[in-house]
Amino acid sequence: MIRLFDFIFALVGLIVGFPILLLLTIIGLFDTGSPIFRQERVGRNELPFTLVKFRTMRVDTVSVASHLASASSITRFGRFLRRTKLDELPQLWNVLKGEMSLVGPRPCLFNQEELISERRARGVLNARPGITGLAQVNEIDMSTPVLLAETDAKMLSSLTLSDYFKYIFMTVTGKGSGDRVTKSSASREE
Questions:
Q1: Could you give the CA distance from residue 190 to residue 51 in angstroms, rounded to a whole number?
Q2: Could you read off the pLDDT of 163-189 as tens digits, one per residue?
Q3: Terminal alpha carbon distance of the chain
Q4: Helix (H/G/I), strand (E/B), else coil: 188
Q5: Residue 24, pLDDT score
Q6: Backbone angles phi, psi at 125, to 5 degrees
Q7: Contact 9, 131 (CB under 8 A)
Q8: What is the reported pLDDT for 177?
Q9: CA distance 43 to 105
Q10: Phi, psi of 55 (to 5 degrees)
Q11: Which of 17, 39, 93, 145 could form a disulfide with 115 if both were Cys (CB 3.0 to 4.6 A apart)?
């Protein structure tokens, strides 16, 4: 049932949101010269998939987890995209393809070994990764891998259709700030 809702919402979102996606792509071209960010992430059953987002950081920054990223790498337009969560819109394509769900654990990088290990131990990696979920609306990010894996497992073990809609609504209305980016570190991930 959730997969059906994922498919319908992603398809409608991409069709209705096409003018917004096009506008953000054009602005992104002027901002970084490369508005679409693609990165290999850990998918369902630990299979790799290519996540797509709007680029929020300079093209020349190093690819690491967001909590290890430097705030100085984020462009002015990128700050706007992150604050409004519009950088996530292209992931509707990942949802449409079945690589992600609207609600699920945020997909991590393959080099985030502690998080992968914690998620593996709790069965979290058996689920489709998502754009939002319980951890995201409670501002729990990848800087706390044990807590994140525990929260993901808790969400997956009790996820109802009502929760699915609640997490989407909370995200759309601004609950949760996304992965934090530190002021002092030198690298990044989108």
A1: 10
A2: 999 999 999 888 765 555 544 443 334
A3: 30
A4: strand
A5: 97
A6: -75, -5
A7: no
A8: 58
A9: 10
A10: -70, 130
A11: 145
| 173: phi then psi, degrees, rounded to nearest 5 | -90, 5
Q: Would you say how long the chain is, in residues? A: 190
The two structure tokens encoding residue 86: 């519009």
Residue 75 · residue 32 · CB < 8 Å: yes
Give me the helices (H) in 58-144, please: 76-84, 91-97, 113-121, 134-137
**Residues near 139 by Cβ (< 8 Å), separated by ≥ 6?**
176, 177
Give φ, ψ of 38 to 5 degrees: -120, 135
Which positions ≥6 away from 32 have C-beta within 8 Å?
A: 55, 57, 58, 59, 75, 77, 78
Buried b (16+ CB within 10 A) or exposed e, 15-28: eeeeeebeebeeeb
